[in-house]
Amino acid sequence: MTLADVAEASGVSATTASLVLSGRARELRISEAVERRVRATAHELGYRRNTLSVGLRTGRSQTIGFISDTVASSGLAGDMIRGAVEAAHRRGFMVFVGESGGDPVVERALVEAMHDRRVDGIVFAAMYTREVALPEGLHDGPAVLLNATSVSRSTVHSVVPDEVQAGRSAARVVVEAGHRSGVHLIGAGPGVDDIPPNSTAAVERLVGLREVFEAAGVEVVSAQRCPKWMPEDGYAATREVLRHHRPGVLVCFNDRLAFGAYQALGEAGLSVPDDVSVVGFDDHPIASWLRPRLTTVALPHHELGVRAVEVLLGLFERRRRGDRTPVVHRVPMPVREGGSVAPPRTADRAR
After folding, report:
1. Do 305 and 178 contact (CB within 8 A), yes or no?
2. pLDDT tens for each residue of 332-351
3. Global pTM?
4. 335-336 and 295-298 as β-strands: parallel, antiparallel, unpaired?
5. Which segments constitute the HTH lacI-type domain (predicted)?
6. Which strands form 143-150's sheet, in the order they lie side by side?
7. pLDDT for res 52
8. Domains of the chain listed by start with CATH number
Protein backbone atom coordinates (compact mmCIF):
# COMPACT_ATOMS: atom_id res chain seq x y z
CA MET A 1 0.00 0.00 0.00
CA THR A 2 1.52 3.29 -1.13
CA LEU A 3 0.91 6.98 -0.56
CA ALA A 4 -0.37 7.20 -4.14
CA ASP A 5 -3.03 4.60 -3.32
CA VAL A 6 -4.20 6.63 -0.32
CA ALA A 7 -4.29 9.81 -2.41
CA GLU A 8 -6.30 8.20 -5.19
CA ALA A 9 -8.80 6.62 -2.79
CA SER A 10 -9.20 9.94 -0.97
CA GLY A 11 -9.65 11.97 -4.16
CA VAL A 12 -6.71 14.26 -3.43
CA SER A 13 -3.23 14.77 -4.83
CA ALA A 14 -0.27 12.79 -3.53
CA THR A 15 1.16 16.06 -2.21
CA THR A 16 -1.98 16.79 -0.18
CA ALA A 17 -2.04 13.25 1.20
CA SER A 18 1.62 13.52 2.16
CA LEU A 19 1.09 16.85 3.94
CA VAL A 20 -1.88 15.49 5.90
CA LEU A 21 -0.09 12.32 6.97
CA SER A 22 3.04 14.24 7.97
CA GLY A 23 0.97 16.41 10.30
CA ARG A 24 1.21 19.63 8.28
CA ALA A 25 -2.44 20.01 7.27
CA ARG A 26 -3.21 22.88 9.65
CA GLU A 27 0.07 24.61 8.87
CA LEU A 28 -0.80 24.71 5.14
CA ARG A 29 -4.53 25.37 5.61
CA ILE A 30 -5.82 22.06 4.29
CA SER A 31 -9.46 21.80 5.36
CA GLU A 32 -10.44 19.63 8.32
CA ALA A 33 -12.82 17.66 6.10
CA VAL A 34 -10.00 16.72 3.71
CA GLU A 35 -7.70 15.90 6.61
CA ARG A 36 -10.27 13.58 8.18
CA ARG A 37 -10.94 11.89 4.83
CA VAL A 38 -7.28 11.24 4.11
CA ARG A 39 -6.56 9.92 7.61
CA ALA A 40 -9.64 7.68 7.55
CA THR A 41 -8.68 6.31 4.14
CA ALA A 42 -5.10 5.64 5.26
CA HIS A 43 -6.42 3.79 8.30
CA GLU A 44 -8.88 1.72 6.25
CA LEU A 45 -6.21 0.78 3.70
CA GLY A 46 -3.66 -0.03 6.38
CA TYR A 47 -1.16 2.53 5.08
CA ARG A 48 1.88 3.19 7.29
CA ARG A 49 4.39 5.96 6.62
CA ASN A 50 8.02 4.97 6.36
CA THR A 51 9.24 7.24 9.16
CA LEU A 52 12.83 6.09 8.69
CA SER A 53 12.95 7.33 5.11
CA VAL A 54 11.13 10.52 6.09
CA GLY A 55 13.70 11.10 8.82
CA LEU A 56 16.59 10.58 6.44
CA ARG A 57 15.04 13.03 3.98
CA THR A 58 14.06 15.73 6.49
CA GLY A 59 16.69 15.25 9.16
CA ARG A 60 13.97 14.63 11.77
CA SER A 61 12.99 11.56 13.76
CA GLN A 62 9.37 12.74 14.19
CA THR A 63 9.71 12.20 17.94
CA ILE A 64 9.52 14.51 20.95
CA GLY A 65 10.86 13.94 24.45
CA PHE A 66 8.66 14.88 27.43
CA ILE A 67 10.39 15.01 30.83
CA SER A 68 8.17 15.55 33.89
CA ASP A 69 9.10 15.92 37.56
CA THR A 70 5.86 14.16 38.54
CA VAL A 71 4.59 10.67 37.78
CA ALA A 72 2.34 10.54 34.73
CA SER A 73 -0.31 8.62 36.67
CA SER A 74 -1.15 11.72 38.73
CA GLY A 75 -4.24 13.39 37.31
CA LEU A 76 -2.85 16.86 36.63
CA ALA A 77 0.47 15.68 35.14
CA GLY A 78 -1.50 13.18 33.06
CA ASP A 79 -3.62 15.99 31.62
CA MET A 80 -0.53 17.92 30.51
CA ILE A 81 0.97 14.82 28.93
CA ARG A 82 -2.29 13.96 27.15
CA GLY A 83 -2.44 17.46 25.70
CA ALA A 84 1.15 17.15 24.49
CA VAL A 85 0.60 13.70 22.99
CA GLU A 86 -2.57 14.77 21.16
CA ALA A 87 -0.91 17.87 19.71
CA ALA A 88 2.13 15.85 18.65
CA HIS A 89 -0.01 13.15 17.04
CA ARG A 90 -1.86 15.73 14.97
CA ARG A 91 1.49 16.82 13.54
CA GLY A 92 2.74 13.29 12.93
CA PHE A 93 5.07 13.07 15.95
CA MET A 94 5.44 10.46 18.70
CA VAL A 95 6.22 11.36 22.32
CA PHE A 96 8.69 9.63 24.66
CA VAL A 97 7.83 10.33 28.32
CA GLY A 98 10.29 10.23 31.22
CA GLU A 99 9.71 10.96 34.93
CA SER A 100 12.48 12.43 37.07
CA GLY A 101 10.86 12.83 40.47
CA GLY A 102 12.64 16.19 40.58
CA ASP A 103 16.05 14.52 40.95
CA PRO A 104 18.69 16.59 39.03
CA VAL A 105 20.78 13.49 38.32
CA VAL A 106 17.78 11.70 36.80
CA GLU A 107 16.83 14.83 34.84
CA ARG A 108 20.27 15.01 33.26
CA ALA A 109 20.22 11.29 32.46
CA LEU A 110 16.80 11.60 30.83
CA VAL A 111 17.93 14.52 28.69
CA GLU A 112 20.91 12.48 27.52
CA ALA A 113 18.70 9.47 26.81
CA MET A 114 16.29 11.59 24.76
CA HIS A 115 19.14 13.02 22.69
CA ASP A 116 20.60 9.52 22.24
CA ARG A 117 17.26 8.56 20.68
CA ARG A 118 17.53 11.55 18.32
CA VAL A 119 14.36 13.29 19.47
CA ASP A 120 13.61 16.45 17.53
CA GLY A 121 13.03 18.46 20.71
CA ILE A 122 12.28 18.21 24.44
CA VAL A 123 9.44 19.51 26.63
CA PHE A 124 10.75 19.90 30.20
CA ALA A 125 7.76 20.09 32.55
CA ALA A 126 7.17 21.00 36.21
CA MET A 127 4.06 19.98 38.12
CA TYR A 128 3.60 23.37 39.78
CA THR A 129 4.59 26.73 38.33
CA ARG A 130 8.10 27.61 39.48
CA GLU A 131 11.62 28.54 38.47
CA VAL A 132 13.81 25.56 37.61
CA ALA A 133 17.51 24.92 37.09
CA LEU A 134 17.96 23.62 33.56
CA PRO A 135 19.69 20.22 33.34
CA GLU A 136 22.95 20.02 31.46
CA GLY A 137 22.41 19.24 27.79
CA LEU A 138 18.92 20.71 27.47
CA HIS A 139 20.32 23.49 25.26
CA ASP A 140 21.75 20.94 22.82
CA GLY A 141 18.54 20.95 20.78
CA PRO A 142 15.15 22.68 20.64
CA ALA A 143 13.51 22.70 24.09
CA VAL A 144 10.52 24.27 25.83
CA LEU A 145 9.89 24.65 29.54
CA LEU A 146 6.33 23.74 30.52
CA ASN A 147 4.79 25.27 33.65
CA ALA A 148 8.21 26.66 34.52
CA THR A 149 10.74 29.39 33.79
CA SER A 150 14.51 29.24 34.03
CA VAL A 151 16.18 30.31 37.26
CA SER A 152 19.06 31.76 35.19
CA ARG A 153 19.43 33.50 31.83
CA SER A 154 18.48 31.11 29.05
CA THR A 155 17.39 30.96 25.41
CA VAL A 156 14.75 28.32 26.23
CA HIS A 157 11.11 29.30 25.66
CA SER A 158 8.56 28.80 28.43
CA VAL A 159 4.86 27.94 28.41
CA VAL A 160 3.14 28.90 31.67
CA PRO A 161 -0.37 29.61 32.95
CA ASP A 162 -1.27 33.29 33.09
CA GLU A 163 -1.27 33.52 36.88
CA VAL A 164 -1.43 37.32 37.07
CA GLN A 165 -4.60 37.32 34.98
CA ALA A 166 -5.91 34.48 37.15
CA GLY A 167 -5.49 36.68 40.22
CA ARG A 168 -7.35 39.47 38.47
CA SER A 169 -10.16 37.08 37.51
CA ALA A 170 -10.55 35.81 41.08
CA ALA A 171 -10.66 39.37 42.42
CA ARG A 172 -13.27 40.36 39.83
CA VAL A 173 -15.49 37.47 40.96
CA VAL A 174 -15.41 38.99 44.46
CA VAL A 175 -15.89 42.58 43.30
CA GLU A 176 -18.70 41.74 40.88
CA ALA A 177 -20.55 39.93 43.67
CA GLY A 178 -20.63 43.26 45.52
CA HIS A 179 -17.98 42.72 48.21
CA ARG A 180 -15.99 45.78 49.25
CA SER A 181 -14.85 44.74 52.73
CA GLY A 182 -14.23 41.68 54.88
CA VAL A 183 -11.84 40.04 52.39
CA HIS A 184 -9.15 37.70 53.77
CA LEU A 185 -6.39 35.87 51.87
CA ILE A 186 -5.56 32.26 52.74
CA GLY A 187 -2.17 31.00 51.60
CA ALA A 188 -0.03 34.10 50.93
CA GLY A 189 0.23 37.86 51.32
CA PRO A 190 -0.36 40.63 52.04
CA GLY A 191 2.98 41.52 50.42
CA VAL A 192 4.66 39.76 47.51
CA ASP A 193 7.40 38.66 49.90
CA ASP A 194 4.87 36.81 52.08
CA ILE A 195 4.69 33.67 49.97
CA PRO A 196 5.64 29.99 50.21
CA PRO A 197 9.20 29.32 49.03
CA ASN A 198 9.84 29.07 45.27
CA SER A 199 6.21 29.68 44.30
CA THR A 200 5.81 31.71 41.13
CA ALA A 201 2.05 31.12 41.26
CA ALA A 202 1.75 32.74 44.70
CA VAL A 203 3.60 35.89 43.63
CA GLU A 204 1.69 36.34 40.39
CA ARG A 205 -1.75 35.51 41.81
CA LEU A 206 -1.14 38.02 44.59
CA VAL A 207 -0.12 40.71 42.08
CA GLY A 208 -3.33 40.21 40.11
CA LEU A 209 -5.53 40.14 43.21
CA ARG A 210 -4.06 43.33 44.65
CA GLU A 211 -4.29 45.17 41.34
CA VAL A 212 -8.06 44.67 41.05
CA PHE A 213 -8.84 45.04 44.75
CA GLU A 214 -6.92 48.32 45.02
CA ALA A 215 -8.59 49.71 41.89
CA ALA A 216 -12.03 48.81 43.27
CA GLY A 217 -11.31 50.13 46.76
CA VAL A 218 -11.69 46.68 48.31
CA GLU A 219 -10.33 46.23 51.82
CA VAL A 220 -8.10 43.20 52.37
CA VAL A 221 -8.37 42.76 56.12
CA SER A 222 -5.76 40.04 56.63
CA ALA A 223 -3.59 37.48 54.87
CA GLN A 224 -2.47 34.14 56.23
CA ARG A 225 0.80 32.85 54.74
CA CYS A 226 0.89 29.05 54.52
CA PRO A 227 4.25 27.32 53.86
CA LYS A 228 2.31 24.46 52.26
CA TRP A 229 -1.02 24.66 50.47
CA MET A 230 -2.71 21.57 51.88
CA PRO A 231 -6.20 21.18 53.44
CA GLU A 232 -4.82 21.16 56.97
CA ASP A 233 -3.08 24.48 56.28
CA GLY A 234 -6.30 26.03 54.99
CA TYR A 235 -8.14 24.73 58.03
CA ALA A 236 -5.60 26.18 60.50
CA ALA A 237 -5.38 29.52 58.67
CA THR A 238 -9.17 29.92 58.59
CA ARG A 239 -9.40 29.06 62.28
CA GLU A 240 -6.88 31.83 62.92
CA VAL A 241 -8.94 34.33 60.90
CA LEU A 242 -12.09 33.38 62.83
CA ARG A 243 -10.35 34.07 66.14
CA HIS A 244 -10.25 37.77 65.26
CA HIS A 245 -12.73 38.46 62.45
CA ARG A 246 -16.08 37.57 60.94
CA PRO A 247 -14.95 37.24 57.30
CA GLY A 248 -17.12 38.06 54.33
CA VAL A 249 -14.82 36.47 51.72
CA LEU A 250 -11.94 33.99 51.82
CA VAL A 251 -9.71 34.00 48.75
CA CYS A 252 -7.76 30.74 48.97
CA PHE A 253 -4.61 30.41 46.88
CA ASN A 254 -5.52 26.87 45.84
CA ASP A 255 -8.47 24.51 46.11
CA ARG A 256 -6.91 22.31 48.77
CA LEU A 257 -6.65 25.32 51.06
CA ALA A 258 -10.30 26.05 50.25
CA PHE A 259 -11.24 22.49 51.28
CA GLY A 260 -9.71 23.11 54.71
CA ALA A 261 -11.42 26.49 54.91
CA TYR A 262 -14.80 24.87 54.29
CA GLN A 263 -14.22 22.52 57.23
CA ALA A 264 -13.22 25.32 59.60
CA LEU A 265 -16.20 27.45 58.58
CA GLY A 266 -18.58 24.53 59.06
CA GLU A 267 -17.23 23.85 62.55
CA ALA A 268 -17.80 27.53 63.39
CA GLY A 269 -21.45 27.25 62.29
CA LEU A 270 -20.92 29.39 59.18
CA SER A 271 -22.27 28.38 55.79
CA VAL A 272 -20.84 28.89 52.29
CA PRO A 273 -21.86 31.20 50.62
CA ASP A 274 -24.65 32.59 52.84
CA ASP A 275 -22.25 33.64 55.59
CA VAL A 276 -18.86 33.54 53.87
CA SER A 277 -17.96 33.46 50.16
CA VAL A 278 -14.97 31.34 49.14
CA VAL A 279 -12.86 31.46 45.96
CA GLY A 280 -10.06 29.07 44.99
CA PHE A 281 -7.51 28.41 42.27
CA ASP A 282 -6.51 25.39 40.13
CA ASP A 283 -9.86 23.60 39.54
CA HIS A 284 -8.44 20.58 41.36
CA PRO A 285 -10.83 17.57 41.36
CA ILE A 286 -11.54 18.38 45.01
CA ALA A 287 -13.36 21.56 43.90
CA SER A 288 -16.19 19.57 42.31
CA TRP A 289 -16.72 17.54 45.49
CA LEU A 290 -17.17 20.52 47.79
CA ARG A 291 -20.76 21.50 48.59
CA PRO A 292 -21.55 23.96 47.29
CA ARG A 293 -19.12 23.44 44.41
CA LEU A 294 -16.19 25.78 44.72
CA THR A 295 -15.82 28.74 42.36
CA THR A 296 -12.22 28.49 41.19
CA VAL A 297 -9.82 29.72 38.51
CA ALA A 298 -8.69 26.69 36.52
CA LEU A 299 -5.17 25.61 35.67
CA PRO A 300 -5.57 24.51 32.01
CA HIS A 301 -3.22 21.51 32.17
CA HIS A 302 -4.39 19.99 28.88
CA GLU A 303 -4.07 23.29 27.02
CA LEU A 304 -0.60 23.84 28.53
CA GLY A 305 0.55 20.51 27.09
CA VAL A 306 -0.90 21.34 23.67
CA ARG A 307 0.70 24.78 23.61
CA ALA A 308 4.11 23.45 24.68
CA VAL A 309 4.24 21.09 21.69
CA GLU A 310 3.02 23.81 19.31
CA VAL A 311 5.73 26.17 20.55
CA LEU A 312 8.37 23.43 20.33
CA LEU A 313 7.50 22.57 16.74
CA GLY A 314 7.50 26.26 15.86
CA LEU A 315 11.09 26.47 17.12
CA PHE A 316 12.31 24.38 14.19
CA GLU A 317 11.62 27.26 11.83
CA ARG A 318 12.83 29.92 14.29
CA ARG A 319 16.16 28.11 14.73
CA ARG A 320 16.60 27.91 10.95
CA ARG A 321 16.25 31.70 10.87
CA GLY A 322 18.77 31.98 13.71
CA ASP A 323 16.18 33.47 16.10
CA ARG A 324 17.00 32.34 19.64
CA THR A 325 15.18 35.06 21.58
CA PRO A 326 13.38 33.37 24.50
CA VAL A 327 9.65 34.03 24.86
CA VAL A 328 7.32 33.32 27.78
CA HIS A 329 4.01 32.09 26.36
CA ARG A 330 1.09 32.57 28.77
CA VAL A 331 -2.01 30.36 28.60
CA PRO A 332 -5.32 31.82 29.92
CA MET A 333 -6.83 30.40 33.14
CA PRO A 334 -10.64 30.34 32.93
CA VAL A 335 -13.03 30.83 35.85
CA ARG A 336 -15.07 27.75 36.79
CA GLU A 337 -18.27 29.01 38.35
CA GLY A 338 -19.57 27.16 41.40
CA GLY A 339 -21.95 28.10 44.15
CA SER A 340 -19.44 29.35 46.70
CA VAL A 341 -19.77 33.11 46.06
CA ALA A 342 -22.79 35.25 46.90
CA PRO A 343 -23.44 38.96 47.47
CA PRO A 344 -22.63 40.22 50.96
CA ARG A 345 -25.36 40.06 53.54
CA THR A 346 -27.23 43.27 54.41
CA ALA A 347 -25.37 43.51 57.71
CA ASP A 348 -22.04 43.24 55.91
CA ARG A 349 -22.97 46.02 53.49
CA ALA A 350 -23.80 48.29 56.41
CA ARG A 351 -20.45 47.75 58.14
Report:
1. no
2. 999 999 999 999 976 454 44
3. 0.78
4. antiparallel
5. 1-58
6. 94-99, 63-68, 122-132, 143-150, 157-161, 328-331
7. 46
8. 3-49 (1.10.260), 60-161+301-331 (3.40.50.2300), 163-299+336-350 (3.40.50.2300)
94: left (phi over 0), alpha (psi -120 to 50) or beta: beta
Q: What's the chain's length in residues?
A: 351
Distance CA 347, CA 118 (A): 66
- The Cα–Cα gap between 267 and 262 comes to 9
What's the average pLDDT block by block, 10 residues per block, for the chain (351 residues)?
Answer: 79 80 71 85 75 51 88 66 91 89 90 90 89 88 91 88 97 97 93 79 94 95 92 97 96 97 98 97 93 96 94 78 78 96 71 44
Tell me how many degrees the CA angle 71-76-80 measures, rounded to the nearest 5: 85
Which contacts (CB < 8 Å, 24+ apart) does range 318-322 have?
Answer: 319/142
The count of other CB atoms within 10 Å of the CB of residue 63 is 18
Give the residue ranges of DSSP H helices in the chain.
3-10, 14-21, 32-45, 51-58, 75-90, 104-116, 163-176, 200-216, 231-244, 255-267, 285-289, 301-320, 346-350
SS3 166: helix
**What are the two backbone dihedrals, phi and then psi, of residue 260, each rounded to the nearest 5 degrees?**
-65, -35
SS3 assignment for 150-164: ECCCCCCEEEEECHH
The pair phi, psi for residue 277, each rounded to 5°, is: -85, 145
282 phi, psi to nearest 5 deg: 110, -30
DSSP letter at 139 equals G
**Are the CB atoms for 72 and 99 separated by under 8 Å?**
yes
